[in-house]
Task: structure prediction
Amino acid sequence: MMNLSNDRSMYEPAVSVKNVSKRFGDRTAVDDVSFEVKRGEVYGLLGPNGAGKTTLLSILAGVVNPTSGTVRILGTSPLDSKTRGLVGFCPQEPVVYDELSGFENIMFYAGLHGLSGSEAVKKCRELLDKLGLLEHADRRAGKYSGGMKKRLNFAIALIGDPEVLLLDEPTTGMDPGIRRTVWDLIAELRSLGKTVILATHYMEEAEALSDRVAIMDRGRVVAEGEPDRLKRECGLRAVINLELMEPAGGALKLVEPYAYERAVYVDGNSLRVYVEDPDTVAPKLVSRLLNNGYKLLAMRISPPTLEDVFLKLTGRRLVEE
Amino acid sequence: MRWSAIKAFAVKELKTTLRSREQLFWIVFWPMILVLMTGYIFIPPSVDQPKTLKIGVVNYDNRSTAPFNGSYFVQILDEVEYKGVKLFDVVEYENESTMVDDLKGGRLDGGFLIPRGFGANLMMGQATLRIYVGASDLQSAQINEAILRGFIEGMSREIAYRKVNETIYYMRRYGSQYMPENLTIPGFNETLVEFLEVWMTGLVEPINATFVDVKPETLMTRSTVIGWYTLGAAGMSILYTGLNIGSLMAVGEKERGTLKRLLASPATSTDMLIGKTLAGVLTLGLTTGLSVIVGIFGCGAKILWNPLKPEHWLVPLLLVLGSLLMIGFGMLLSLVTKTARGASGLSTVLGMMLSFTAGIWFPKSWMPEWMRFLGDVFPATWAIDAMRSIMVFEAGLAEVLLDTFKVLAATTVVYLLGILAYRTVLRRYAEA
Result:
């Protein structure tokens, strides 16, 4: 095992990504990405499907070689098998052996991490218990529901007691209760000083768990920082959501002058208007729409989210409908 | 390379393989079915027993008052035995046409039509007899004709001997009354009667042949033949299961979606290779063991294994080498297959074809020259032939040592090439 108490290594970032690009033929999946993740930090990779998050995690896991750039995990190459022993990788799709029971699946990966005997059995049972799978431990994984497979998938990533955890959409397909359990586990891991890189397209997940976030779009990092800072730097103080009786496209010109940097987004019958001073702007907006014959169904004023940051930066939503 | 990871891969492979009904059938049950089919259909227990022919008889000489008539002949047919087994199962018919109908229907192997006066003519001169040769297929027609001919020739010879003996008896008894006592034939020291005895015996049987039963070892007994086929069935499994294991080594994990996770784990690709190969060799050992058990205890195969004989320890070595060889070939196949289904299909087809051309399922002597060449140059044939030589034909160490070294050399080359192919395929899939 690597000596983690080494002074020099304690000051090194847990993960360092420098000018990493990955091309598959003509397609660029990751385009000149750089960032560093400190030890004990939860770092979110937020972006829609196809943003390059999964490819980036595959590079960090040592599965795929970057076309250019360098990656260091705990100061060494992710291709080093010793380094891989300190990294837990949870792929997006639950990958388990259907013919094996849940317990046998996790025991198999325990063996790959060099665990065996009673130590492995104890560790596997603990993890299955934490994720609510202990009573199903002896059932074949092929008989598990999708959510149970996702939990088993997550448990497998933790079996090697990793220093760095790479989670690719870990809660997609889970019901809210189990999602909360996984969030709690991630929070617990952070409190234990583990480093987590979390790729997600759930804005609330990234906000709730991440110390810092990199927003990715089309292979590039378009913004990086703490969630609150990103929202502040975007100049957004509030978002006014207006639901009209009819398609909102025609109202765009009416509300644009009131928006911060004319930032208005139309989605069917809805208008999403970014403003600096909602108390002053909201009454004016309503009055303008009503005077021009629009009928208002609902209005909501809320603080901006990372979804709004993404929308402002890219002009597109995180989850396309 | 770590033992815990290798063991984890091997245990996982064994569990997933033995829990898959499809794989279980091909690996465990199919070779056992082949052995049982060999023992009870292709080479049934009756194969080395004398054959009993079902024959029809129409006897028109049953009312003769001569000392020997058709009924005595029918009795002989009914009682004659060969090696303790009745030669004929006799069915009597009233007329010829009914018997011929049954011959044409394949219900009889042969028939005898005994004419009136048969017995009297047999005693006093030459009798006539019509013999029908029937058959349910072309091969049995030849066998039936040979048996019927053999019986009639043997019986004719016996009757001729009796006639000679009777003649000599009367010549000795009454000859002195009519022939001078010292009558001799010029150039011979015997009396005329002694000369005539030798002369007539020569007429009955000009050549007194002695037949010595020396059959090729491969066809010596039913148990030897079944032993040969049992190891053939095990060899066939090694061929296509080995190819299957090798060709699915990477693509199987890729299609399950587990490959990337395995590559991200601390286990190396070498751990995976060794673990999976170990499981494959154990699986093929299990297949061979079960085939041998079914062959010996289910079908009476002659398969020997004596731990006190050093050459018998080459058998497990040859089994491991043969398995590694085919797994190596399978890994080479994975270069050209893109899906698990394609790999599995190609392995099975190639395995089946090779089992025919490599002399694993049929003796090479049955094959045309060009096909025999394929068997001669295919290393798996060397391994299986060497195993057969040791376990069935009791070959000594010196007889199989060269073949074992040839198999070792071929396996080393093929498996190393297979590793290169496996690493290429892994890189290809990881980047996909």
Notes: The interface with chain A takes residues 2, 4-5, 7-9, 11-12, 15-16, 19-20, 256-258, 260-268, 271, 430-431 of chain B (CB under 8 Å). The first strand of chain B starts at residue 53 and ends at 59. The mean pLDDT of chain B is 87.
